[in-house]
Design brief:
The protein is of the alpha/beta class. The chain is built from 15 helices and 32 strands. Helix 3 runs antiparallel to helix 14, helix 3 packs across helix 15 and helix 5 runs parallel beside helix 7. The two termini are about 45 Å apart.
Length: about 675
């Protein structure tokens, strides 16, 4: 229990007043033995037990009445989380708000989303209580920390509005930790508002151990999680992939894939049977609209190779695909841009010619015969020949680069390109002194010896997104069939994408500003693994990396919404929709931007559409050993997180006073007062 006026509790010792008055009243008169009273005393002793009980109850009722009055004045609050909160006010209250697209799932009757519901309930709670000297907000879209004047302001800030971005809960907690440590805050309350999506929490990341350790060292830090884990009652999402512009003689057309996904039992009828449903999809290309109906099944629907005729003179432009409104308005429209496809160029830097040729063969064959691929394989001593501006993918197999080359690689990745690092075959080079993107190679390990702690099997991989995501039809890549005979340890704080049965990493993505850097712990040749022999995983992984890195080479590029996604050019102008033209919010909302001949389409990331909700047990386990409380709430429920109980205490005071009055009624056998009866019962006469 917590109190809005805790200073009123100083008056609690006043509950002893009835007892003190009674004791003083007993000492008012001198007790004189009187023979005539002896017979009365003997008669009174017959009922002394009941008399003592009745008058003790009268005293108890008076004590409770005063206590109830004091508690009512102190304005107590009730709430499931209040058991973790003491009476002292916090030095700082931090709000970590998930603004990802999935947080816009709405209760259609209440018209409230998970995000707006969380904000309203939390603002109301903080207004009721004392949020301390500093109220701070960390939003998932910008990741920045800013001070807020009052809880009510949270409801109107631009940085609390919905966005098409994804959240990074570990990074937000690291920002909170940095503030608390830098300001040496004492008692702090940290409120996390989230829908527990796996991609937002990244429960398998190695960062959580460090976060837990840091919070353990902070005394007085209390964490609260407003968990909106309930799935939408009915929701459809749409996504466009593989947008290509092709010419046939004097005609031109767009060819694209449209994927519609269902969520929340959209097709379940009243009798629990699957009911077919047709849904209209609206296409818009440069303000020209058309509608196509598709029939949904249990997974949704897809249009592969859908063709849209366009003017042959239109070499580049934009379009969108839309669905009717449903539970989440942020995933009902997807923007795309198009232009003539660029040549996808990759460079393989290898310390072994045979390994380099393995990479070249996998990269040289495009997934579509109409796309051109160009692959160069060079040794380490010819790195100066790399055309960084026109290369989309860098494969680096060998000792990690250092000095000027390392700076060039980092600049290459930060410009939106992709680099993949594979270990050197040289066992004499441990790589302990070389570090890039906060990653470092360790020593070689074997899975075939008796001393090995792994069989070389892949025990887990991330199939919802990134290089190892399931195929478009939902089938998983055959990683379980791969065998690894030798692998190299490496240290990294990145996101784990695949691991062996001993939890050693196989593939990790390291966080960068714009592009991506991947580290793979084994090599594709038969001496090290079956990647080349089995082929499918190796080919898909490299082709996806090349496609991702080549996006920035095109005049038109598809980009995931994030704070700096448009930082590569200075003159981006909004094309559609025009209402999201605020400079501070650019890149955070879905839309189309143009800078002269360059086009960019901003959308939610793919994982926002198919990410699953993390289990409550997995999320709770991330906070083991910390002062932590999870509060499960439902979208649309804006009732108060904590309610005042002073009315209950006033009612309780009235009840105990009435009971005291009833108990104080004189007995039929005597007209003495309750205090006199108590004195007689104790063997004295006043």
């Amino acid at each position: 229990m917590s109190f809005l006026q805790p200073l009123a509790l100083i008056a609690l010792p006043l509950i002893a007043l009835p007892i003190i008055i009674h004791l003083i009243n007993q000492q008012r008169h001198r007790t004189v033995p009187w023979a005539a009273m002896m017979f009365l005393m003997r008669a009174k002793r017959m009922s002394r037990g009941m008399a003592r009980l009745r008058h003790l109850l009268i005293l108890l009722m008076r004590v409770l009445a005063i206590a109830a009055l004091i508690f009512a004045i102190s304005r107590p609050l009730s709430g499931g989380w209040l058991g973790s909160v003491g009476l002292s006010k916090p030095d700082a209250t931090l709000v970590l708000l998930d603004r990802s697209a999935s947080m816009e799932v709405q209760d259609l009757q209440a018209g409230e989303s998970k995000r707006s519901t969380a904000l309203k309930r939390l603002a109301q709670l903080l207004e009721q209580g004392d949020y301390g000297t500093h109220l701070l907000l960390i939003d998932s879209a910008s990741g920045q920390l800013q001070e807020v004047d009052s809880p009510k302001v949270l409801l109107s800030l631009p940085v609390t509005e919905p966005s098409a971005t994804s959240a990074n809960i570990p990074a937000m907690l690291e920002t909170a930790l940095a503030y608390l440590k830098a300001n040496e805050s004492g008692r702090a309350e940290i409120w996390i508002c989230s829908d527990l999506k796996e991609n937002d929490w990244d429960v398998h990341s190695g960062r959580w151990n460090a976060i837990r350790e840091e919070f353990t060292q902070l005394e007085g830090a209390h964490l609260f999680l407003l968990a909106y884990a309930d799935p939408p009652s009915s929701n459809l999402s749409v996504r466009v992939e593989n947008v290509q512009r092709w010419e046939r003689g004097n005609d031109a057309e767009l060819v694209l894939d449209v994927i519609v996904r269902t969520e929340g039992g959209f097709l379940t009828g009243a009798e629990g049977r699957i009911a077919a449903r047709r849904v209209p999809i609206e296409f818009e290309v440069n303000n020209v609209r058309s509608v196509v109906e598709v029939e949904l099944d249990t997974l949704g629907a897809s249009l592969k190779g859908h063709r849209i005729p366009i003017d042959a003179k239109l070499s580049s432009g934009w379009g969108s695909v839309s669905l009717p409104g449903d539970a989440n308005p942020l995933d009902n429209r997807f923007f795309f841009v198009f232009s003539e496809p660029p040549v996808r160029k990759a460079v393989v830097v290898s310390d072994d010619a045979k390994v380099g040729e393995t990479f070249r063969r996998a990269l040289a064959i495009p997934t579509d015969v109409r796309i051109q691929h160009h692959v160069d394989v060079i040794p380490m001593n010819r790195v100066a020949e790399i055309d960084w501006e026109n290369t989309g993918l860098l494969i680096w197999q060998g000792t990690l680069p250092s000095g000027l080359v390392a700076e060039q690689v980092q600049h290459f990745v930060n410009n939106g390109r992709v680099a993949m690092f594979f270990p050197s075959k040289l066992r004499t080079s441990t790589g302990t002194g070389d570090q890039l993107f906060a990653a470092r190679w360790g020593g070689w390990q074997s899975t075939t010896g008796e001393q090995s702690d792994t069989k070389g099997d892949i025990s887990w991989w991330r199939g919802d997104t990134d290089l190892l995501a399931h195929a478009e039809g939902g089938d998983a890549l055959p990683l379980s069939e791969l065998r690894t005979y030798q692998y190299r340890d490496f240290e990294s704080q990145g996101t784990l994408l695949a691991r062996f049965d001993n939890d050693a990493p196989l593939l990790t993505r390291v966080a960068t500003d714009q592009g991506a850097a991947y580290f793979c712990s084994t090599l594709p040749t038969a001496q090290f693994s079956s990647l080349e022999r089995d082929g499918v995983v190796f080919y898909v992984m490299l082709q996806r990396a090349l496609a991702e890195g080549s996006q920035t080479l095109a005049v038109a590029s598809q980009r995931d919404a994030e704070i700096d996604v448009l930082a590569d050019r200075n003159q981006w102008e909004p094309v559609a929709p025009t209402e999201n033209s605020s400079i501070s919010q650019r890149g955070l909302h879905a839309g189309v931007y143009r800078d002269e001949g360059y086009w960019a389409a901003i959308n939610r990331s793919q994982i926002e559409d198919n990410a699953k909700t993390a289990s409550l047990e997995a999320v709770d386990g991330l906070f083991d050993g910390l002062s932590y409380r999870r509060i499960d709430v439902n979208v649309g429920d804006t009732s108060a997180l904590a309610s005042e109980l002073w009315r209950i205490f006033l009612i309780a005071m009235a009840v105990v006073l009435m009971l005291e009055a009833v108990l104080s009624l004189p007995s039929r056998k005597t007209e003495s007062t309750p205090l006199m009866d108590l004195a007689v019962a104790e063997g004295t006469t006043e």
